[in-house]
Amino acid sequence: MSRVKKIPPVDLTRQYQVISEEATQTVIEILNSGRYIGGTAVTTFEQEFANYLGVNKCVGCNSGTDALYMALRALDIGQGDEVITTPFTFIATAEVITRVGATPVFVDIEADTFNFDLQQVSAAITPKTKAIIPVHLFGQPVDMQRLMEIAQAHNLYVIEDCAQATGAEWNGQKVGSIGHIGCFSFFPTKNLGACGDGGALTTNDKAIASQVIMLREHGLKTRYSHELTGINSRLDSIQAALLSIKLRYLDSWNQQRQQAAAYYHQLLQPVTGVKLPQALAGGTSVWNQYTIQIKDDRLDGEPRRDRVRQKLAEMGVIAMVYYPLPLHLQPVYQDLGYRSGQLPVAEQAAREVLSLPMFPGILEEEQEQIVYSLKDCLST
Ligand SMILES: *Cc1c(COP(=O)(O)O)cnc(C)c1O
User: How far apart are CA 253 and CA 250, in angstroms?
Assistant: First the structure.
């Protein structure tokens, strides 16, 4: 094989090239305006994003983590409360539960979707449970209809962690518009990514929205009257303006991800020893990641996946592992008392997952090179 080009896990310059002219012009306008925090750029984006999702209210903030934190605070969740979530997610999802003084309760995931198992969610509900945080992991939506039925039966709040799933749908409804609150991240590698940090919280509940508007600005109600212990969590004007531009391209970028996922599927179908991500009937994934599993029968020692990943890197293909250690086994959560082996599906996934390069604008020939290299790595 001739010398190959290196393929990164994500190439954000391809998105930027599409919008570079309008983006540059907008940034210069804001620089000239002298208004760098708040203003119409922020309120315009909030309105556009609310319309896109089909919700009443969108409150911009500094990050997805802050959106999740403020969601819990707005629902008055804290000491003595339990919040059920998945152990197979980015740390932020659980970290905020701990930060408000509540206890994260981890339930195992489904082997096919990497999302938490709804039967186990039901079984984990106790009198202390206040909320459930579903994570639409890798862009694949949780079965929100079933989850809302479970939550309603027990009078629980549902806070959707949509950080990896902007634009994904369950039964034709956008995630982030189905639960009581939706939390979004605009970290650059997410489906709708800013050129820096950013986040948003969405809801149909006006009381929640006004609570969050206070929280994001030091608990301020009217000028210098602080009613809550808040935080400082702003979405910058420049980021908001760039997000407004990118929002217009989001659907076509998500379509490009869907096409790339379908092509991976076609190329990988005949390959033995890998398990492909499953699409769930009812859900429309936006493929923030295309995550395969490298089958591994052992339970300890170095995962076979790590060797495959290393060899792939030597061939110029950078694949990523999200996530190598489930949250219930993280050092920071040792005091919760979970044991290794307790959530076996998540633990097995942590040993086997491998996310292949995935981004809008990825070329078919790049995907062919990735799969060609992968086959080579698997056969040695
Ligand atoms: C990225 C991410 C977050 C946090 O978002 P930030 O904007 O980085 O704070 C939360 N949950 C999940 C699942 C994520 O992927």
Answer: 5
Mean pLDDT score of the chain, rounded to an integer? 96
Task: Say how many Å lie between the CA of residue 65 and the centre of ligand 1.
Answer: 6
Report which residue type is found at 235.
L
Give residue 92 CA to ligand 1 midpoint distance, Å.
6
Token look-up 């591994």 returns 296
With b meaning 16 or more CB within 10 Å and e meaning fewer, what string describes 1-26?
A: eeeeeebebbeeeebeebeeeebeeb
Q: Which residues line ligand 1 (CB under 6 A)?
A: 63-65, 89-90, 92-93, 135, 161, 163-164, 185, 187, 199
Residue 4 pLDDT class (50, 70, 90 cuts): low
All structural domains of the chain with their residue ranges: 13-247, 250-378
Domain over 250-378 is classified CATH 3.90.1150.10: yes
Letter for the amino acid at 367? Answer: Q
Domain covering 13-247 in this structure, CATH number: 3.40.640.10
Whole-number Cα distances in Å, 90 to 37, 72, 136, 323: 29, 17, 11, 8
* Residue 280 DSSP class: P
pTM for the predicted model, two decimal places: 0.97
Instruction: Choose one of 10, 66, 90 to mutate for the ligand 1 pocket test, by most ligand atoms within 8 angstroms of C-beta.
Output: 90
How many Å apart are CA 271 and CA 274, to the nearest integer? 7
Backbone phi and psi for residue 293, each to the nearest 5 degrees, phi listed first:
-120, 130
Convert 298-329 to b/e letters by CB count within 10 Å (16 or more is b). eeeeebbbbebbebbeebebebbbbbeebbbb
**Token output for 255:** 């379509």
- Number of Cβ atoms within 10 Å of the Cβ of 276: 16
Helix (H, G, I), strand (E, B) or coil at 196: coil
Please state whether beta strands 129-133 and 157-161 pair in parallel, antiparallel, or not at all (unpaired).
parallel
- Is the pLDDT score of 70 beyond 70? yes
Q: How far apart are CA 291 and CA 90, in angstroms?
A: 15
